[in-house]
Structure formats: structure tokens, C-alpha cells
Amino acid sequence: MLREVFAERGFEVTAVCTGIEGLKEAAQGIPDVIVTDWSMPDMDGVEMLQRLMRSERTSEIPAVLLTGVGHRLNPAALRDSGLRMIMGKPFSTRELLMQVDSLLGWSDDSRAVPGACDRRAA
Fold it and tell me: Does residue 121 fall inside a structural domain?
């Protein structure tokens, strides 16, 4: 669902299913933003983001963590992840898009026309 929502807004979207795939994709493609779930099969989203923060190549990529288990998140781990935003489930796709645009410094005008910006989301 999120792939379609972001694609409709002009993002080039790369979707992966595991943290390992996310690490590889982020290092190769350097997306403008990462939207990840807390729960993944091989590592959680916070661990993936922590690993990305350790690399000079990927340390500046803003990230949003989607979670339905916010009470289990470790504050120290969050600080080390470079995470800029946490959204609880269920969430509004409109709100998520607004938050991503805000993280990237884009206005409503710049996303009004699909393809108006060169955008990459993973």
C-alpha cells in the first residue's frame, strides 16, 4: 500500500522485506528517506537504522519508523539510530506523507505534481 501511495506522489520507491535487504538497498541507492517498520524477519527497524548510522555513506538519510509496539522501544537504541520520526499504527497515509515532506524540506507545492522532484524512498 505504501509503495503505491509514495509512487503516486512522484517518489521512486524501492520496497524490501528484510533489514539485510534494506541495508544493501540503502547503501547502493542512497534514498532521500527511509520508511521502515519496527518488525522485520531478520532484525528490527531500529537495528537496521543503527547500522546505517555507522556508515558515512548512509548516516544522513532521514528515517521514519512505523510501529505498533512503541512501548517496547529502547530510548538509548533510538538515539543511536538517527531516527527522526516514529509513527504508531494505525497511521494516516496523508500524515505520513506530510511528515516525510517535512523531513525533506518539501512544501505541498513541490509534491502537488507527480514527478516534480527527484525523490527516492526505500
Answer: no
In a domain, 111, yes or no: no
Q: Which domain does 62 fall in, by range?
A: 2-105
Q: Is residue 110 in a domain?
A: no
- Residue 49 corresponds to which cell in the numbers above? 537504522
Q: What is the pLDDT along the chain (122 residues), one digit of tens a residue?
A: 899 999 998 899 999 999 999 999 999 999 999 999 988 889 989 899 999 999 999 999 999 989 886 556 677 777 777 777 888 888 899 999 998 998 888 765 544 444 444 455 55
Q: How many domains does the chain have?
A: 1
The model's pTM is: 0.78
Q: Is residue 115 assigned to a domain?
A: no
Place of cell 548516516: 59
How many C-alpha atoms does 53 have within 13 Å on its Cβ side?
Answer: 16
